[in-house]
TrEMBL record:
Protein name according to UniProt: DNA methylase N-4/N-6 domain-containing protein
Domain DNA methylase N-4/N-6: 21-119
UniProt similarity note: Belongs to the N(4)/N(6)-methyltransferase family.
Protein's UniProt keywords contain Translocase: no
Species annotation: marine sediment metagenome
InterPro entries, per the entry: DNA_methylase_N4/N6, DNA_methylase_N6_adenine_CS, SAM-dependent_MTases_sf
């Protein structure tokens, strides 16, 4: 494997046409950016392009250039797979489709360990009014502790040993602040627990999937990048009990008849013929980490 440490916009231009089967990236999400439509040219743009703590920037012009080059270097039916945050994907989708990509079924990474970032309205009111809030206790600063733990495990960044690990617990002072105690605001005030993985596909070589496979083999003596190896991606059963459980979950009702849009119980007599795939469960669009799976 070769790792090129460079600006992707510059690096991608070095590759020839129809070179990659897939492009995979975890780009800047633009979490601190506001998306709007420019009335002059009709394009989606960032009003203030910045990401988390202003560490990364990827402007709308760069997104447009990236997808233009991605379309060029991908093979027919090739995939562009990009991590993103649900509230900021509209601009990415816009420039992907503008470049000629087709949006496919998204994937979702469920990780359950996100940190909520809502603005505390009650504290903001007292601060604006110049009211001093009474300190009634202390609590751990969860972000600092969790970030310190992660950085220590990574081993190459400072683990915030000298950072403030406790914060004050205060109670509202003004009458208005008391009415808004516990209220928060923001574009993402809830605890984040998942990331969206956008999937785009470049145009097929043929008119449809079958024509794409046949014509690529006929004209290029190659294999299509547009089709997915489903059986090769199945989630294997842990043991025989897991296989039986999977088989049972494929049925519904007291009679465990197969799932159907038809009348309930119509095919209950044929339930013994329903078998789970021995190679494993059909791959889904949801990815779950080990900690989240234990909670589920």
């Amino acid at each position: 494997m070769i790792i090129n440490h460079s600006d992707v916009i510059d690096d991608i231009k070095k590759y020839p046409n129809n070179f990659f089967n897939t492009i995979f990236s975890d780009p800047p999400y633009g979490l601190g950016s506001k998306i709007y439509v420019d009335k002059k040219d009709g394009k989606m743009k960032f009003e203030n392009c910045q990401d988390f703590m202003n560490k990364w920037v990827l402007t709308d012009e760069q997104w447009e250039e990236f997808f233009k080059e991605a379309m060029r270097v991908l093979k027919f039916g090739g995939y562009c797979v990009l991590f993103g945050m649900d509230r900021q994907v509209s601009l990415v989708k816009y420039y992907a489709i503008k470049a000629g990509f087709e949006e496919c079924q998204s994937l979702y990474w469920y990780y359950i360990s996100g940190f909520p970032k809502g603005y505390d309205i009650s504290k903001g009111i007292d601060d604006r009014l110049g009211e001093k809030r009474e300190v009634i206790g202390k609590k751990d600063c969860g972000y600092v502790i969790s970030t310190s733990k992660i950085r220590k495990e990574q081993g190459y960044r400072s683990n915030l040993i000298d950072a403030t690990r406790e914060v004050n617990i205060t109670k509202p002072s003004s009458d208005l602040a008391k009415q808004y105690e516990g209220y928060r605001s923001g574009v993402a005030p809830l605890k984040p627990c998942m990331e969206t993985i956008l999937v785009f596909r470049s145009p097929l070589y043929g008119k449809g999937p079958l024509e794409d496979v046949i014509t690529i083999y006929k004209d290029m003596k190659g294999l299509s990048a547009s089709v997915l190896n489903i059986n090769g991606s199945r989630v294997k059963h842990k043991n025989e009990d897991d296989l039986k459980k999977s088989q049972r979950l494929n049925c519904i009702g007291n009679d465990y008849g197969p799932k159907t849009k038809e009348i309930y119980g119509k095919f209950k007599d044929s339930r013994s013929n329903i078998k789970a795939h021995k190679q494993g469960r059909y791959p889904s669009q949801l990815l779950v980490d080990s900690k989240a799976s234990e909670l589920i």
